[in-house]
Write a structure and sequence with these properties.
Distance between the termini: 41 Å
Largest sheet: 4 strands, antiparallel
Strand order of the largest sheet: 4-5-3-6
Helix content: 55-70%
Number of helices: 10
Strand content: 5-15%
Length: about 260
């Protein structure tokens, strides 16, 4: 780094060399963070499963379906989505299955969607128990069929697909978490190296004295003990105002 007129200039080559010197620390930090993410994903985090039942909405059961009836069915599908998410249907599901949970907790695990330009409604339940969420999804479909037919005075929606017991959880994504932990650890360690580099304004070598102070080094004075390992560089310079004044004083003293 170099300061000129209160403006800090960063030597990118030196920065890259500083990062290279600490690459082992950066990689070690990344591996540690990846390990912590793996421990959390494999042994701590509870797996979350998802099960979905599907309803098919139709305006009437006649074999010949007109375009207007298709449009009506599509409109009904949007209304049905709102009805399925209502508190009354959630209460019926809880009562029918004897669930030990609050309505708000059940609705939090519920997701009802209607894919665009279709008359299909997806009723999705998420939870930690694969068997239980499957039963809940199917019960939502059964209760919703009866309630929709009763309120809208239409034929009952058809069960397009029953929910099945999921075999694999959707969360946590163990591989993704490990990769994210590795990347996060590497980035954080790299940032720490860069910040320490920017904050470090000490002189560490002869070359840095000549480069940053623009002084010519004439001698190096080694010290005993621990300081000998580090070395102390004497700023006996052949240039600069201070050095020139010292030369003039010595000349006057010796009559030169």
């Amino acid at each position: 780094m170099k300061y000129e007129d209160d403006v800090m200039e960063i030597d990118l080559l030196e920065l890259l060399l500083a990062i290279r010197d600490k690459i082992a620390v950066i990689l070690a930090t990344a591996v540690i963070c990846a390990g912590l993410a793996g421990v959390y994903s494999f042994f701590i985090a509870q797996p979350v499963y998802q099960s979905t039942s599907k309803l098919y909405i139709q305006a009437q059961s006649s074999s010949a379906v007109s375009l207007s009836e298709l449009q009506v069915s599509s409109t009904l599908a949007h209304d049905c989505v709102e009805m399925i998410q209502s508190q009354s249907i959630s209460e019926d599901v809880i009562g029918n299955l004897g669930l030990q949970m609050e309505v708000k907790d059940l609705q939090r695990s519920l997701s009802v969607t209607n894919p665009e330009d279709t008359r299909i409604i997806n009723i999705t339940i998420e939870g930690h128990d694969p068997q239980q969420i499957t039963e809940i999804a199917n019960e939502f479909a059964a209760v919703s069929r009866a309630r929709i037919s009763e309120v809208m005075k239409t034929d009952k929606p058809q069960i397009w697909e029953k929910a099945t017991v999921p075999e694999k959880p959707i969360r946590p994504s163990k591989r993704r978490n490990v990769m994210m932990g590795f990347l996060a650890g590497g980035v954080l360690a790299g940032l720490a190296v860069v910040i320490l580099f920017l904050l470090n304004d000490t002189i560490k070598s002869q070359d840095e004295i000549e480069k940053y102070l623009e002084l010519n080094l004439l001698a190096v004075i080694p010290m005993d003990g621990e300081q000998k390992k580090k070395g102390i560089f004497a700023r006996l310079a052949g240039s600069g105002k201070g050095a020139q004044k010292k030369k003039r004083r010595r000349s006057k003293k010796h009559g030169k």
